[in-house]
Every structure is written in C-alpha cells, then in structure tokens.
C-alpha cells in the first residue's frame, strides 16, 4: 500500500545500536510501541498545552494534543500512501521534550540555562524531545534511550538551531542534524506531522479558547477560515447554538483543511515525482496547504495569538509559571536534588530534570523549596 516515496521500514537507515528484528512488527511499529510505553509519554497527561492542568479537566494537555496530531496524521498518510506507523510514532513523540507550563516554561528554562551556561546553546524543546528518546529514557540494559530508527528520530527533531545541528553532526556524522546544515527536507511523513500539528492546535485552541470564556464565537466571526464554516453550519442548522454550533464548525474546518492538504500535496507529488523517500528529501517541501488555505491558517494563528495567547488572564498565568521555572532552576543550581541525574549542579542536567516535570510536580517542588504558592 505504500508509495515509492514513503519511508519503508525494511529500508530504514537503522538504529544507533543494532537489534535483531522483531518477528511480528515492523521497525516503525516497534518504535511507536516504545514511545507509548515510555515514562516521558505518560508525563504528557499532566503537561500544559495552553491552559494549566488545574484550570479544568477538559482543556487539552500535551497528551491529548499528541493523540489528535496522530489521528490527523494517520488519516492523511493513509490516503497519500505514506507510512502510517511512522507518522503516528513521530506525532506521539514530538512533544516529549516540552517543559511544564508550555511555551512559557520553555522560554524561562532557556533563559535560565543560558545564564548559567552560555556555551550550552540554551533549551530547545524539539532538541529535548530527541534527547529524551536518545539518552534520558532508561528502559534497556544495553543502552540509554529508546534506540529508535533514524526516520523516527529525524521526524521528532522538527526544528534545530545551526549551532545545535553542528553539535549533533559532530556527535553523529550524517545523522539527524545533517539536514539542517544541508538545508534539505525530512521525510514526507515528518513533513506531514509538522502540518498535522498546526491543524490540530489551531482547532483545539479555538475550542479551548471558547470553553474558557476568553474567546467568543462573535470574535471568531472576524476570522475568515472559521467564519466560513460557522456560516455553513448555520445554513444547514439555523437554530443551532452553543457547544454543538462550535463543534460542528470546528469539525467542518478540520475536514476542509485535511482535504486541502491532500489536494495540495497530491499535486506537488505528481509534479515532483520523487522515486524514493531520499529523493523526496531533496525536493522543496511537498506536504503543504494550498496558498489560499495557508493564508487563512496564518490569519487564524494571528487571531489566537492576539486574543488567546496574549489575553491578560493567560499572560498573568504564564508570568507566574515562568517564575516557578526560574526559581526552581536557581534552587537546584544552588543545591541539586538528591538521587537525580541533576546531582553535581550541572546546568544541563538540571534543565533535563525540570523539563521532565509535569505541571503539578513542578508546582509542588516550587512550594516545597520556596514556601510560596503561586497558584491556587
């Protein structure tokens, strides 16, 4: 069922530590299963997407977001003839390196790490996700990490600074950092996960924004992409309102974005005709929206940035969350927590320890160390 330009597990570039093939699963299926059983994956259930864990039981977490990305990615991959298992594994692992408190936590940890060790390169959550699966997971007697296939690791490393790419290349010549230096593309499966990530968080941040009361349907009518499907729903169901109206509008928006990706990517693949997964890597990005949908998606992201992510209530919450991370880092730098890999006061190991925390554990630790309670 796979197209020639898909990643075929039998043609994988392999693992850093060779292993005997599994009798009943492909290499990418094994990787996906390892990710699902990892400690870092379980922690995602208590890591923030936009709203902190204690703010409501129905807001998205990193775990539910990752599941939504996997669902969208698999649906698109099946139609395009790409490898569904690879797409699912990348989707489930792409946020493993995220800190507690979302991007606010990441920014604060990056600042703290750079201040303590300017040569460290700071903190990048995509690089941390790779670090989790390569080094920090401790599940096997023979090696650190999960020992995933190259293709899975390539997809997990969505972004990487030039300095960190050079460091990766020095440690693993021709490995996952190489494409950032050569300016080539990752696999089509990785490209698809990147776009599925965008589709998922745009849709669920609309849902969570309205659920929180910080965004209204009236405000969303300013957004052409959402307005189009809100009007479509009301045309078919004039009396519909409330949650059903919101859900149906989002459902229609999600469906149209998926069909748009299929159309745009199908056309790009026909034009480029890559004969293999490696040939696709040498092409310009092939998995995309049409220009019209890309423009509408950007407008939706702009709306969410202004009306949700920068809402005074969210800004207040993220400001306090940053204080938690900064003060935890300072406390551990002065006195590393006993019995952890952060012993010795090394800034990178302290960053690893904090990045692995859930929101609620970070809050408990902060209160224990400082005596202050920043969230009710």
UniProtKB/TrEMBL annotation:
Example of a GO biological process term: dGTP catabolic process
SUPFAM superfamilies named in the record: HD-domain/PDEase-like
One Pfam family here: HD_assoc
UniProt keyword terms in alphabetical order: Hydrolase
PROSITE patterns: HD
Keyword Nuclease found: no
Chain intervals for the UniProt region annotation (Disordered): 1-28
InterPro entries: dGTPase, dGTPase-like, dNTPase_2, HD/PDEase_dom, HD_domain, PHydrolase_assoc_dom
Signal peptide (UniProt feature, chain positions): none
Protein family (similarity comment): Belongs to the dGTPase family. Type 2 subfamily.
Protein name: Deoxyguanosinetriphosphate triphosphohydrolase-like protein
UniProt source species: Piscinibacter gummiphilus
